[in-house]
Amino acid sequence: MRFVSLLWRVWKSHNWVVFEGCQYQREVLRNQWVTPVEEWKRMRSVEEDRHQGRRQVAPLAPLRFPQGVSWVCSFDGAVREASHSAVGIVLQGPYGVVVRALGKGLADLTDPMLVELMAIREAILWCRSMGLHDVCYQGDAKVVIDKLLAGCAWDCYGGAVLREVQELLANVTGDVLRFVGRDNNRVAHRVARKALSLYPTLIGGFDFCVWLHS
User: Fold this and answer.
1) Contact (CB, 8 A) for 98 and 91
2) From the DSSP assignment, how many helices (H) and strands (E) are in the chain?
3) pLDDT single digits (tens) 118-141
4) N or C: which end of the chain has fewer CB within 10 A?
5) How far apart are alpha carbons 121 and 113 in whole angstroms?
6) What is the dihedral angle through the alpha carbons of 146, 148, 149, 151, rounded to the nearest 10 degrees?
């Protein structure tokens, strides 16, 4: 399956270069060719368990705010290989009520790690623009969040963004950053996927909050 997935990625990259005029990105091909296999295995496992009546999907637990936190801001990134990406950000107030939602497209940015880092940056700047403090920023990008919390440097072109995010978090003592699983971040994930599908017509003004409530 991995070999077939690799061939499929090579073929898709060929089509992007020849028919869409995109620039070939070896890093994208090398880093992401395994993803479809893992997703297929996970989906197949879920479907088999559901078919056999063994899997019961438990409801999500109520949102619990960390002590001293007034807002929870969830973020996520979505990537369309060799094309573009988008970020989704959701602001939740007391009792987990969605207050606002933001989706933003990112042109010519397809590195998943950097996209997740940009999602954190956009979430912080968005909340700061509204004058919000004591915010808990949460996402499911564990590697990126661990690097930020450990104060690590980044040995690639994302290093400048990493340092900027670290400085933004250090400037306000009431803000916190934490990792949550995908199941607890699926609202921001849906906003990111919707923003990805709307790009580049996103500039027209799409009310993500109304879309979520609908």
Assistant:
1) yes
2) 8, 5
3) 999 999 999 998 888 889 999 999
4) C
5) 13
6) 120
Q: Any idea how long the chain is? A: 214
Q: Which amino acid is at 84?
A: H
31-39: average pLDDT:
60
Looking at the domain assignment, is residue 79 inside a domain? yes
Residues 149-180 have pLDDT tens digits of: 888 776 666 778 888 888 888 887 788 999 99
Our count of domains for the chain comes to: 2
* Cα dist from 107 to 50, 80, 83, 86, whole Å: 39, 10, 8, 8
**Contact indicator for 69, 133 with CB cutoff of 8 Å:** no
How far apart CA 181 and CA 185 sit, in angstroms, is 6
By residue range, what is the domain housing residue 7? 2-51
63 found inside a domain: no
Residues 41 and 110 in one domain: no
- Report the CATH number that the domain containing residue 194 is assigned in CATH: 3.30.420.10
Identify the pLDDT of residue 115.
92
Q: Write down the pTM of the prediction.
A: 0.66
Do 147 and 104 lie in a common domain? yes
Q: What is the distance between the alpha carbons of residues 119 and 74, in angstroms, rounded to a whole number?
A: 9
**Residues 16 and 79 placed together within one structural domain of the fold:** no
Residue 33 domain-assigned?
A: yes
